[in-house]
Amino acid sequence: MLKLSDLNPNRLHIVPLGVGNAFTRVFYNSSMLLVAGGRIVLIDCPTPLRRVLHEASKKAHLEIELEQIDHVILTHLHGDHANGLEEYAYYKLYIAGQQRPHLYTLEENLDPLWENRLKASMGGSPDEPRSLSTWFHSHRWVEERRFRLAESDPDLEFEVRRTRHSVPCLGLKVYFGMYTFGYSGDTEFDADHIEFLSDCDFVVHEAGGPKNHTSLDDLKTLPDDFRAKTALIHVPDDFRYFESDMPVLSEGAVYQVGSGREPVDLTA
Ligand SMILES: [Zn+2]
């Protein structure tokens, strides 16, 4: 088993935890880890979170535990992206005995996240009420500016853009050193969103279409240079692999941004 410190600290790595859509029976729901300079960021938080991490850790030959993850970016509130937040927060406090993790999402998602989702099971008792701030340091991200993680140095920055989805959702760009990574988030096909992602070295785009998502047929219309640096996520179980020149990400593989769109072999 390798340790995270064995990864090149100057490079941005992506470890997909799940690549399936909301109804998958062969994958896990879509989420991934960013690893940069020894920091780990979880992008979306599906269930069963610790099992998903454990499976990816085994496949990657990389030691990854929830104890190491103190930052989560939530693209939106759909269950296949957010259902693991309760497990995450309870585990961090009661099992790991750690500080509250940091949670980053669109400003309009924070109140509904608590009032309409988490409060029912995490709201405490009348004598001992709890709030979102009991469990998370929350951070409101808006468009058209760059953000850093809490307590983090300036070489890792994030920029978000709202997508076209059935609920408020973000796509994002991650800047680390010379390299830029782009993730579509859940979105209908949107030429303006493609433009937002187009200057990235490596793009992960969802392909869960057609309705509220992006279809492979739409992605196939993109320019060669965009397709050549793009891999896919949030795919249906019957995805038409043989019709796509864009690979689907592999769960538990390790991708190095700026080194193509095939996984790197950490054991080589
Ligand atoms: Zn969604």
Care to describe what's here?
It is a single chain. The mean pLDDT is 95. This protein has a seven-stranded mixed beta sheet with strand order 6-5-4-3-2-1-13. Strands 7-8-9-10-11-12 form a six-stranded mixed beta sheet, with helices on one face. It has one domain: Ribonuclease Z/Hydroxyacylglutathione hydrolase-like (Metallo-beta-lactamase, Chain A, 4-Layer Sandwich), CATH 3.60.15.10. The two termini are 13 Å apart. The longest helix is centred in the middle third of the chain and has 16 residues. Helix content is 23%, strand content 24%. Strand 2 and strand 3 form a beta hairpin. The chain is of the alpha/beta class and 268 residues long. The chain contains eight helices and 13 strands. The chain binds zinc ion. The site of zinc ion has 4 residues, from loops.
Write a short abstract of this structure.
This protein is of the alpha/beta class and 268 residues long. It has 8 helices and 13 strands.
Number of helices: 8
Measured between the Cα atoms of the first and last residue, the distance is 13 Å
At the first level of CATH, the class is Alpha Beta
Instruction: Tell me what the CATH architecture is.
Output: 4-Layer Sandwich
Q: H/E element string?
A: EEEHEHHEHHEEEEEHEHHEE
CATH homologous superfamily assignment: Ribonuclease Z/Hydroxyacylglutathione hydrolase-like
Number of domains: 1
By oligomeric state, this entry counts as single chain
Within the CATH hierarchy, at the fold level, what is the topology? Metallo-beta-lactamase, Chain A
